[in-house]
């Protein structure tokens, strides 16, 4: 069965789903220090903006953003985007990214993120949303030692 993005609801991430986030982290990022349930809880405790993508009430993706400062000097950082492998390639990640960028735009924030240099699908998605590569972080992901690109999207006026 192939769900459409219109069937997926993007809502504020529920604390009840943090265990599921940690489970997905193990699947998605198992070789690179995946986040624990307590790491997600800490992000929420700090007031960062976290969303969940839900299909029939089940969490199939998540995304988080931190915003620092105030316009015109605000900066945002995408902390994470993850989508259950069974639901990848169907627009869930793009939907989550767009929701994070809407939040960044509300703050007129320049947005940054790190992405593995070998993650071509993610890099393409970020480029499609106005990001450009501005730096390289050698051996950023541990323990694998994979390099990361730093990408930036200039602030956009919210419409």
TrEMBL record:
<dbReference type="Pfam" id="PF00583">
    <property type="entry name" value="Acetyltransf_1"/>
</dbReference>
<protein>
    <submittedName>
        <fullName>Ribosomal-protein-alanine N-acetyltransferase</fullName>
    </submittedName>
</protein>
<dbReference type="InterPro" id="IPR000182">
    <property type="entry name" value="GNAT_dom"/>
</dbReference>
<keyword id="KW-0963">Cytoplasm</keyword>
<feature type="domain" description="N-acetyltransferase">
    <location>
        <begin position="8"/>
        <end position="156"/>
    </location>
</feature>
<keyword id="KW-0012">Acyltransferase</keyword>
<dbReference type="InterPro" id="IPR006464">
    <property type="entry name" value="AcTrfase_RimI/Ard1"/>
</dbReference>
<dbReference type="InterPro" id="IPR016181">
    <property type="entry name" value="Acyl_CoA_acyltransferase"/>
</dbReference>
<comment type="similarity">
    <text>Belongs to the acetyltransferase family. RimI subfamily.</text>
</comment>
<keyword id="KW-0808">Transferase</keyword>
<dbReference type="GO" id="GO:0008080">
    <property type="term" value="F:N-acetyltransferase activity"/>
</dbReference>
<dbReference type="InterPro" id="IPR050680">
    <property type="entry name" value="YpeA/RimI_acetyltransf"/>
</dbReference>
